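Researcher: Let's continue the batch. This sequence belongs to Probable siderophore transport system permease protein yfhA, and it's 205 residues. Same format as the previous ones, please.
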Amino acid sequence: MGVAVALLVVVLARDLSRPRFILIGIGVAWALSAAMGLFVTTADIRDVQTAMTWLAGSLHAATWPLLAVAVVWALPAVLILYLTARAADVALMGNQVASGLGVRLSRLTLLRFFAPVLLTAASVSCVGSLGFVGLMAPHMARFLLRGGQVALLTGSALVGALLVLLTDTIGRLAFAPLQIPAGIIISLIGCPFFILLLWRRRDAL
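Model: Same format as before. Here are the C-alpha cells for Probable siderophore transport system permease protein yfhA:
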C-alpha cells in the first residue's frame, strides 16, 4: 500500500522537484486521512479501537509472525540503501560532479526514494505510525557520528530503535497500570525537537 501511494505521488508530481512533490504528497495525505475518517465512523467499535491504537503507534500488537513479514519486506530496502551509499556520498558533491564520476542520478534518486518507503511500510505494518522517529533519529545520529551514508544509516537505525524502546518503556511504566502508546510519547518529545530544528535552520527556510 505504501509503495502504491508513493507511485501515485510520483506520477501526479511527474518529477521529484521538491515544491511540487511536497504539495502532491500533502493532497494525497488528506485524501487518505479522509478515508481513514470514513472507516472510523462506520466500522465496528472493536475495529475502531484497534485502528486508533495503530494510528497512535504502539508496540502492543506487534507479534513475531508480523515481525517476520516486516523483515522480509525491509531487507531489500536495507540492501538498496547500503549498496547505493557510496553513490549517495558522491551525489552530495553536486549533480555535475556526480554525473562526471559516473553516478546515474535519476536511478539513484528513485532507488533511494522507494527504499525508505518500503522500510516505512514494513515498520508501520507492525507498530503503526511513529513519525517523529524518522525525523529525530538521523539528526541525532549525525550529531553523534562522523562519516558518510553508511555511518549515518547505521547510526540512524540504532538511535531510532533505542528511541522506540525508550518511549515504549516510558509509556508502559510512567502511568501504570494505564499504558500510553509509544507514538504519543515520541510525539510529545518530537514536537519540541521539530520546533527547535526549524528555529536553528530559520535562515535557510
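Researcher: Any comment?
Model: Residues 1-42 form one domain.
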